[in-house]
Amino acid sequence: MSTWANLGLQDSASPLMEQLIFFHDHALLILVMITVLVGYLMFMLFFNCYINRFLLHGQLIELIWTFLPAIILLFIALPSLRLLYILDEINEPSVTLKSIGHQWYWSYEYSDFNNIEFDSYMIPTNELSTDGFRLLDVDNRVILPMNSQIRILVTAADVIHSWTIPALGVKVDGTPGRLNQTNFFINRPSLFYGQCSEICGANHSFMPIVIESVPVNYFIKWISNNMNS
Ligand code: CUA
């Protein structure tokens, strides 16, 4: 999760987020190079005193400063497209989780397992335990197995919400009447915090998401306990 003064991206916990961070760094590097070059040129313009009364056109330089930016943009566009298609790929998921956005909480269904379903509300500040995270902890966490492909189906019951987990590189809108799909692979056991990221009404800030990723045998135990009850 994000803590104090963490202005960059969170550490990745999935291969997709790792690729997203690589792409971010790559794009930032190109951006810095352009900014430095243009900044240097503009700065130097203040101090030059070259004048040419007969300069009316410069075909070659115009050709260069038209095509060079276009080629540079390709170096961002092509990796971006590659990422887009990787993110869209569904790799034979072993678990499917359905999350439904409501005003203002999430509810979850494990449709593969006798349709286990529950609501997940934020814990109010006055009920928070001393080791809890204010505005981020929920009463019922999403339990998911690590090292497995997981499919997420996102929808909403009233207005548009967005199911967002930064460390996993997941951000899917939940839209009433539609079922959106994405998938991810969690590569370590941990707690992952996220928040709704569509402005969905008065309590938009108060519908966090907590994922608890556990080893597969723990997940199976949790599933079988909940199926019996
Ligand atoms: Cu749900 Cu913002």
TrEMBL record:
Primary role: Component of the cytochrome c oxidase, the last enzyme in the mitochondrial electron transport chain which drives oxidative phosphorylation. The respiratory chain contains 3 multisubunit complexes succinate dehydrogenase (complex II, CII), ubiquinol-cytochrome c oxidoreductase (cytochrome b-c1 complex, complex III, CIII) and cytochrome c oxidase (complex IV, CIV), that cooperate to transfer electrons derived from NADH and succinate to molecular oxygen, creating an electrochemical gradient over the inner membrane that drives transmembrane transport and the ATP synthase.
The transmembrane residues are: 27-51, 63-87
One of the protein's GO biological processes: ATP synthesis coupled electron transport
Q: What is this protein called?
A: Cytochrome c oxidase subunit 2
Query: Which family is annotated?
Result: Belongs to the cytochrome c oxidase subunit 2 family.
Q: Partners and quaternary state?
A: Component of the cytochrome c oxidase (complex IV, CIV), a multisubunit enzyme composed of a catalytic core of 3 subunits and several supernumerary subunits. The complex exists as a monomer or a dimer and forms supercomplexes (SCs) in the inner mitochondrial membrane with ubiquinol-cytochrome c oxidoreductase (cytochrome b-c1 complex, complex III, CIII).
The top of its lineage is:
Eukaryota, Metazoa, Ecdysozoa, Arthropoda, Hexapoda
The highest taxon in the source lineage is: Eukaryota
Q: Which coenzymes or cofactors are required?
A: Cu cation
